[in-house]
Write a structure and sequence with these properties.
By secondary structure, the chain is α/β, with parallel strands linked by helices. It contains 5 helices and 5 strands, in the order E-H-E-H-E-H-E-H-E-H.
């Protein structure tokens, strides 16, 4: 059985690399959404266990999506990993509410996969 996660990334090349790295062993099923306005629907439809957000996206920013997720009782405990070219913006504008992490672009694929696995392990242990 695979663990579904939602990746909100509007750059198709970056999204493809992320999907390949994260889904390589077959235990995680990454679903890509390229528009921030569609993220919540995707989270609901697939039962996502983790959300990876780009901060700057069309439709709704990653920060806007994060606010909606944190305000929704069914989603507030889903871990969030921001993968962004502007990590300072993500860190400065986000409240210190766990679980969330920020990873700067460009990123190391091993670091990305390690953080995803760590966040999922924490979420699945709850």
């Amino acid at each position: 059985m695979t663990t579904p996660i939602v990746i909100a990334e509007d750059d198709a090349d970056i999204a493809a690399v992320m999907v390949e790295a994260i889904g390589a062993d077959g235990s995680i099923e990454p679903i890509v959404v390229s528009n921030g306005a569609l993220v919540i629907d995707a989270v609901m439809n697939v039962g996502a266990r983790l959300l990876i957000l780009d901060v700057q996206m069309p439709g709704a920013t990653g920060i806007d999506v994060y606010d909606v997720v944190r305000d929704h009782p069914a989603f507030r405990d889903i871990p969030v990993l921001f993968v962004t070219a502007n990590p300072e913006l993500a860190l400065d504008t986000l409240p210190g509410v766990a679980p969330r992490e920020v990873l700067a672009k460009p990123f190391d694929l091993d670091d990305l996969v390690g953080r995803v696995r760590s966040l999922l392990a924490g979420a699945l242990a709850v």
